[in-house]
Design brief:
The protein is about 45% helix and about 15% strand. By secondary structure, it is of the alpha/beta class. The chain has an eight-stranded parallel β-barrel, surrounded by four helices. A two-stranded antiparallel ribbon has the order 8-9.
């Protein structure tokens, strides 16, 4: 069975300690810690976290990843790009403090591909110096938001891995099942998340309410060798007015992972 995880961004109203406790109490194997400021709430992990807080949080693991998304990562402007790089590397240090082996970033806003590729290559090197795996999450509407541009980034930054989120690839016109097959050799973390719409109209919706054939997508990833964590990144409360409470979302998410994994595995077994 795959490792199950849940992204703490949905629980931004809670302290990081309460968020992790709630997720683990629902039976998830691991937690994906949020280090990104979101439209609906603050990050759970920050550069300036006190050592005593980091020690306490480290003891509550395991963690599948630390999300260190920064809007200026790979920005065309040197000042913004350099500030984002310094912040990203400081957050890598927080990952080390927490015993987390994987960090992932996004292509920032107002980027150019050369600047973004350079930032990714530098990120791979900085992570390697710390014994970390460095991954990119392609994002809808950004310079890297498709399978093709993700593969170009991997070629430009050898050692770069992928945090695979089909809900960003689908609005960009990708066949996410084929995307999973092509990107599986580089995937180290996977978001189970659904979506509707185009780059201009997309909405992240509850699992099963969108346009993605998630069992087929996961089946392709597994058949191509993916064996990493599957993490629920729940954002439909913001994008689709999902009114479920915390406990319902956590319980439904775990059931969704196991149900979709079972469907994917059954199809593989059937040949």
């Amino acid at each position: 069975m795959l490792t199950t995880s849940f992204h703490t961004g949905f629980l931004s109203d809670l302290s990081v300690f309460d968020a992790v406790r709630r997720i683990r109490d629902h039976g998830y194997d691991a937690v994906e810690l949020n280090g990104e400021t979101l439209p609906w709430g603050p990050a759970h992990v920050s550069v300036g976290m006190a050592a005593r807080e980091l020690d306490r949080l480290a003891a509550m693991g395991p963690y599948s990843a630390l999300c260190i998304h920064h809007r200026d990562f790979g920005a065309a402007g040197a000042d913004r790009r350099d500030a984002a790089r310094l912040w990203t590397e400081a957050m890598m240090d927080r990952a080390v403090d927490l015993g987390i082996g994987l960090v992932h970033v996004i292509p920032g806003e107002d980027t150019t591909l050369p600047a973004l590729h350079d930032a990714l290559a530098a990120g791979v090197e900085a992570a390697a110096r710390r014994g970390l795996t460095f991954a990119l999450e392609p994002i809808v509407g950004r310079e890297i938001g498709t399978t093709a541009t993700a593969l170009d980034a991997i070629a430009a930054a050898p050692g770069l891995k992928i945090n695979f989120d089909p809900s960003h690839l689908k609005p960009m016109g990708d066949d996410v099942t084929e995307a999973a097959r092509r990107l599986a050799p580089h995937m180290v973390h996977l978001h189970l998340k659904d979506v509707t719409g185009t780059p201009e109209t997309f909405r992240f919706v509850p699992i099963g309410a969108g346009e993605i054939d998630l069992p087929a997508m996961l089946r392709a990833a597994l058949a191509a060798g993916y064996a990493g964590p599957v993490s629920i990144e729940h954002e439909s409360h913001w994008f689709a007015e999902d009114a479920r409470g915390i406990d319902a979302v956590l319980a439904d998410g775990l059931r969704d992972i196991r149900r979709i994994e079972a469907l994917a595995q059954d199809t593989i077994a059937a040949g």
